[in-house]
Amino acid sequence: MKLREARRRLPVVESLPPGRGRRVLPPPRGAVQRPALAVWEFTRACDQRCKACGPRAGVARPDELSTDEALRLVDELAELGVGEVALIGGEAYLRADVLWVIRRIRERGMSCSMTTGGLGLTQTRADALVEAGLQLVSVSIDGLEASHDALRGTPGGWRRCFEALAHSRKAGARIAANTQINRLSWRELLPLCDLLADAGVEVWQMFLTMPHGNAADHPELLLQPFELLELFPALDRVIARCAARRMRFWPGNNLGYFGPLEGKLRRLQQEDGHYKGCSAGRTGLGIEADGTIKSCPSLGGAVNAGGNWRDHGLRALWERAPEIRYVEDRGVDSLWGYCRDCYYAETCMGGCTAMSEPLLGRPGNNPYCHHRALEMDRMGLRERVEQVAGADDEAFAHGLFQIVREPKVAGALPVTIEGPRTGREVAFFGAGTPLERAGETLS
Fold first, then answer.
1. Is the pTM of this model over 0.70?
2. For 282-307, what is each residue's pLDDT tens digit?
3. Roughly how many angstroms between the first and final C-alpha of the chain, as a whole number?
4. Domain ranges in the chain?
C-alpha cells in the first residue's frame, strides 16, 4: 500500500535552494516568551539499542556540531534567556567535549542536567561531569530488571543503572529517574518505586512510550487506550508511595488529562493542578546534534524543524520559524475526531503532540487520555489502536495507526474507526463489514 502524501499544515514560507535548508523566515511578530528549558541531543551516538528509542540512536548524526559551535550555541541559549539545559542523546557522555559544554553552560548562569541510559556512567565519568558543573543526573530505568534489560537490549544494564545513580550521587549530583510506561513496565511501577527511593532518587518522571522511532517497529510495546482505566488506579498507589518515601512524582506531558487523578498528577507542576496544553515552542525547545532547532525534543522530521542554527542563529528561529511557533499559533480548528468536541478542547488542545502526531500523522486527536477513556467506558465503549503502516529508518520516523472504537462486549454495536491523517471516520459493523469509506487514506 502507498500512503497518500499529507502534511499537518501548509508551508508558510518557501525554502531557498539548495544548502542545509536555509529559508526565508517570516518577519518578527512582537514579543515572544523566552524558553525556560532547552533539551539538547548532544550526540546521537549511543552505547545501547533500545526498542523504544525515538531518534533511533546508535550512530552519530552526520555533521554534528563541533566543540566551538556547541560553545557558541551555549552563549546564544543564555542570551535568549534559557534557564536550564538538559543534555540527552544518544548518550551525551560519549562526546569528550561534553565537559567543556557543561562548564560553559554553568559559566553563563544556566543550570545543567543530563538524562542518561547509565550503562557507561562510571565513577570516573560521574566525578568529571559533576566537577565540570553537572547538577542533576536522571537515569532511564524502565521497570524491573528483566523488563528493563529486554527493552534496552543490554543484559546487566538494569544493575548498571543503579550503579550510575550511586556514582552520580557520590560525585555530588542530585539524582532522578525516568520511566517509560509500556507493556513491559506498567505492572512493575510500585515495586520499582521503593527501589528508586532506596537509591536516593529525588524526582521520578513517567511518560507513556511514544509510537515513533524504534517503538514504531515494536507496536506490541504500546498500551492500549482502554488500558488507561487499569493504569491510573495503579498510578494513584504509586503517587501515594512516592509521597510516603519523599520522592517527587513528575508526570510527562503525554500522561493524564482531566481525569479524577489529574490534581494529584500535576500538583507539583501547576498551581491549579491540571494540564494546560503542549508547551513545545512556548516554554521549551529541542536541539538536535547537527544544530537543527525544533519546538519539541520528542519530535523530528522536516515538518517539526524550524531550521538549522548554523544558518539562522537561535533567536531568529525561536521567534520567527513557523514550525517552532506552531503550538502557540494553532487553535481549536486544528483539533479533529473526539478531541474537537471535547469539553476541555480549548485548554487541552488534544494533549501532547509528540503522542498524537506519531500515532495518526498529525496532532489534534489523542486517544491516550484518561478523561476520554472514562467517557468511553461510561458509554459502554473502548478504544484501541492498530498499526496500518510501518515507519522508515529515519530518526523519529513514525508509521500510522488507526483508532478503533468498539463496544466493551464484542459484536454488540457498530465499530468506528478514525482513520490516520483525516478527521473523518470509517464505520464498521461488529463483523467488520464496512459501512462507509469516506475517511479512507490508504491506496
1. yes
2. 899 999 999 999 999 999 988 899 99
3. 6
4. 37-329
